[in-house]
Every structure is written in C-alpha cells, then in structure tokens.
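Is this the right way to post structure tokens for a design question? Let me know if I should format differently. Anyway, here goes:
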C-alpha cells in the first residue's frame, strides 16, 4: 500500500511517500481502507519532534490521526463491524496513523461515520470533534445559558466548538479575525471579537467557560473574564492552578484520547444538522507537505483534509 512515513524528526521534507505492506489486523482490530484523512497541528508537532518526550515512537512513523473509510476486514474478536461498513475514527496516537491506504485500528476506537456527509467531511471530524466535546461537555459540563468564550473560533477545533456550544444552548462569544467573522457568525456565535482590533479582556465579562486553544498571553488574559467558579480549559498549555485560585475560578488541561462513544454522539449531531464540518482545503496524499505547510501557517479556516482512496 502507499503510505507517508517519517524516518526522523524534522521539517516537511521528512514526509516520504512510499510503498509498504498492508497492516495485518490483530484480533481486536478493524482494518480500514482509508478514503480520507485529515491534518491536525499535532501531526507536524510530532513530525518536528516537539512532543518526543510525551509520545515515544520508533521510526518510521505514519502520521495522521483522523480517518474516514470503509472496513476491509475485521479481527476474529470483532463483532460490531463487518467488511463494507463506512466508519470513522481518531485512532491511538501511539500506533501508525492514517496517511496510508490502510490502517489497523482497535475496534473500540471506531464508530459508524455520519451518513449525511461525505468521507471527506467525516475525516475532518474525529480529532477536533472529540477535543471540542471533551472540553465543553466532559470537562466544563456545559449547560443551557452558559456564557462561553471560544478562542480561535475559525480553526479546526474552534469551528466545531462554537457549534457544539450552541447545540448545548450556550451563549457564545468567539474570537476571530475580521476576514473570518461572517463564517464564525454563521456557525452560531452570538458575539464576535475581532482579536486584531479589539482586546477581548476589556470587553468580555461574566464568562462561565473559556475554551483556550492558543495559550501564552491569550490564556493569561483570559482569567479576568471568568465569573467566580467559572472554568478555563486549555488544550495547549496546562493552566496555572495558582492563577485559578487567585481569580476564584477553576482550570483544566485536556489531551484527548480515542473515543468511539463521542464519535457516535457527534455523528448524531451532524446527521440532525446541528454540526457541519468546515473544510479549509483538500489535498492529495502526494501533496501532504503542502497540507502540513497550511496547518503550520496557523491560518487554516476549518479543517485540512487529505484524499487517500476512492469512496
Ligand atoms: N490537547 C489536545 O488534545 C488538542 C486537541 C486538538 C488540538 N490541540 C491544539 O489546539 C490548537 C488549535 O488546534 P486547531 O486544529 O484548531 O488549529 P488550527 O485549525 O490550525 O487554527 C487555525 C486558526 O486559528 C486562528 N487564530 C490564530 N491565532 C489567533 C488568535 N490570536 N486569536 C483568534 N484566532 C486565532 C486562525 O484564524 P485567523 O487567520 O483569523 O487568525 C485560524 O483560523 C493547536 O495548538 C493544537 O495542537 C490540542
């Protein structure tokens, strides 16, 4: 099969398209024929070696941890899927990833893909969608009427987080730049802060949940907008517990794991029209370096999808 692997940490030139044997599914695995994958910032953070202390790998590594595809075969202990099923997944990040024509995934990490959208759109959902869910639903326990500040609302995670918060009846304040404000508004945001011209920390108050996907000074300025006992949840930098105590609020850090149950919830939300994936750009597997370059620019609007096989 064709796959993109890296043999050392480094730049986009480390991404090598090559032929290799198809993986053999273990007893609990599903072998998925990949129709589409997507690129997340974690892909190039791993490629560059930023996460090597946290995520130990043996080279070569197939990057990519989003997939939508079709079940090719199943291991002998797998009962919930059969060949031909359309599925999607955010597989285990410590196994080979999805920049490949086939991937073997633990069946417990796989869910049926939403039926109303293409594989292209479905591949954009798992990693960013589980992230939005873990932050808002599992960690912050979002409820109707909550005031939620979502930073980087036009990004892969942010564009889903805005819609998920709205689906839970929240009042959403979103930071974005003017060029993306119409899109973010169309996702349901109630208030838009143009971060290039407005200081959010001077205008936003009484927030129940801050969704921090930027860290650094954005995180530092976010404490003051929370109401007492509100929560700041970061997906980039563990927040300081001292700062949380000083501001009489709570804080949490989320690093997601595979979660088929959440993927099933997300599929229901998509199929009932409450969430729509936003696709920034689509690339062929051969052009994976260009897809990484777009992700590394920090300017992608929604998700970056990679076409791998036929639907
Ligand atoms: N811990 C976890 O489990 C986890 C899971 C998923 C993601 N993450 C991390 O979360 C971060 C975000 O991921 P992502 O996939 O959403 O990234 P992304 O799609 O690459 O984000 C790009 C978007 O960020 C916006 N942006 C950049 N700077 C901004 C600012 N100062 N204020 C407001 N918007 C800004 C850009 O809009 P403009 O062009 O308008 O600036 C662009 O649309 C990454 O660092 C990723 O590694 C962590």
């Amino acid at each position: 099969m064709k796959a993109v692997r890296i043999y050392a940490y480094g730049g986009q030139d480390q991404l090598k398209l090559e032929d290799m044997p198809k993986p053999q599914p273990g007893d609990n695995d599903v072998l998925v024929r990949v129709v589409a994958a997507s690129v997340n910032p974690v892909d190039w953070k791993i490629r560059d070696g930023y996460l090597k202390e946290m995520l130990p790998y043996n080279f070569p590594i197939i990057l990519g941890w989003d997939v939508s595809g079709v079940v090719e075969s199943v291991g002998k202990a797998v009962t919930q899927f059969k060949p031909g099923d359309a599925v999607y997944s955010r597989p285990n990040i410590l196994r080979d990833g999805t920049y490949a024509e086939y991937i073997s995934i633990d069946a417990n990490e796989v869910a049926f893909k939403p039926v109303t959208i293409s594989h292209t759109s479905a591949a954009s959902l798992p990693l960013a969608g589980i992230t939005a869910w873990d932050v808002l639903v599992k960690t912050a326990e979002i409820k109707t009427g909550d005031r939620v500040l979502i930073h980087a609302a036009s990004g892969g995670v942010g564009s889903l987080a805005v819609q998920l918060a709205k689906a839970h009846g929240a009042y959403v304040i979103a930071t974005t730049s003017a060029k993306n404000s119409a899109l973010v508004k169309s996702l349901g945001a109630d208030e838009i802060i143009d971060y290039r011209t407005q200081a959010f920390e001077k205008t936003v108050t009484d927030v129940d949940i801050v969704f921090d996907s930027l860290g650094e000074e954005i995180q530092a300025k976010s404490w003051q907008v929370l109401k007492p006992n509100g929560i700041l949840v970061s997906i980039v930098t563990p927040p300081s517990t001292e700062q949380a105590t000083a501001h009489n609020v709570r804080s949490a850090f989320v690093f997601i794991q595979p979660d088929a149950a959440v993927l099933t919830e997300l599929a229901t939300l998509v199929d009932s029209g409450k969430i729509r994936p936003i696709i920034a750009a689509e690339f062929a597997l051969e052009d994976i370096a260009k897809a990484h370059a777009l992700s590394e620019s920090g300017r992608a609007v929604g998700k970056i999808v990679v076409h791998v096989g036929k639907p």
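Format looks fine. Someone answered above. Worth noting: Residues 5 and 47 are 10 Å apart (CA to CA). The radius of gyration is 19 Å.
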